[in-house]
Amino acid sequence: MENYVIEMLNITKEFPGIIANDNITLKLRRGEIHALLGENGAGKSTLMSVLFGMYRPEKGEIRKNGEVVNIGNPNDANDLGIGMVHQHFQLVEIFTILENIILGVEPNKYGFIEKQEARKKVIELSEKYGLKVDPDAYIEDITVGMQQRVEILKMLYRENEILIFDEPTAVLTPQEIKELLQIMRGFANEGKSILFITHKLNEIMEVADRCTVLRKGKYIGTVDVKDTTKEELSKMMVGRDISFHVQKDEGKSGDVILSVKNLTVPSKTHKNNAVRNVSFDIRAGEIVCLAGIDGNGQTEMVNAITGLERSSFGTICLKGEDITRAPIRKRSMEGMSHIPEDRHKHGLVLNYKLEENLVLQRYWQPEFQNKGFIKFKKVREYAESLIDKFDIRSGQGPLTPARSMSGGNQQKAIIAREIDKEHELLVAVQPTRGLDVGAIEYVHKQLVESRDSGKAVFLVSLELDEVINVPDRILVIYEGEIVGELDPKKTTPEELGLYMSGAKRDMIKEINDAG
User: How far apart are CA 126 and CA 137, in angstroms?
Assistant: First the structure.
């Protein structure tokens, strides 16, 4: 009889209107990396939240090393050596990185918190695993990618032996992903056991030993990764064949829709400017992708363009009109749609119903209100049409609280709202973050359709495959400056990597200096 470090046997978890986990069994071996794969809303995060004590199942039991255990809350899980990196960050924004990492396990002496020893341990862990952070930076001032590092360091700090990674690479750069996968393999070699939720089939093929597939809350099967293929896994996940190539014809660009001239945006975390004297145009009928390693000014540039931050210099024009100081609603009404980087902070009102979130950008329009009173029937009908069109899965349909939906379906809701509203410019920041391969295929199709209908699309992505396959032009940003403009049909991942790391800029500078 095989020994398992964790056994989740016949787990059933229900929410209003939906069975999130329907009689699922999952067994984790000691020292293995076990991937958990499924569509958005398949029940993966729910199952791991049951293991981590955030939910109590209606049926089933959990065993550790063959013994039945009762996990009533995350503290019980931590006591059993179970740690979790959450898909949606569990961080206190007004605390520093150090304070977040030690929260709940603060070292103290005579009732006073002893931060010095904790700081030393955090710095050692961050350097050892290539997750460098500034312990004194505040969460509200750092990028989404940096927040992900903090989540991983929280778990490392607690020295857990069973590690749950819920979409840990969703906001990391290709290099950071490679390093993290190596770290995970190192953990497994040390005897730690890893449960790894991801939608990225390449990562599963590269690092996982076994993979369990869920679909619509049900168990589909467990396979040895060495004996399967990406195509087989994707078909198990969505129940149909998936195309991994973006289908698009040659673009036909028109008038300039977005014009950015000499844009400079200050940094919140250091004295230097985050964006430095950047200029570019985006025309109707083209997709332009901003590519770069996270933290090189992408967030600040997008925030300035969409109105979330003020620039210190330069101009932003939408269809020839200067919107540099325009409020966010005016930008929206003038034809700008925005799929934000942080769906919780800037994309949704989590305590609102799904239908309310779907009309956030339009509720004041005559279609949805009359003399200040909302036409609730029209809102409901509109929400139902978007739910059907974009396959947004929610237990109570339009009445589902946004907070209770899976991350991928929250993302689908934002994409549906922003693409469906009248727009001339779509600013899409990490639009496929946390989506399964079927949903990614659909979103890419929507971006191309927006382009083909004469819209301008400004895509910001950390995914190399997306950067090369989706856009018509690539702008590479490094340390707040545009260091290259590339043709995706003619460039390679290696050349793109040289530009993203700054190596190409340095090489050109050396040649110019020598000349």
Answer: 14
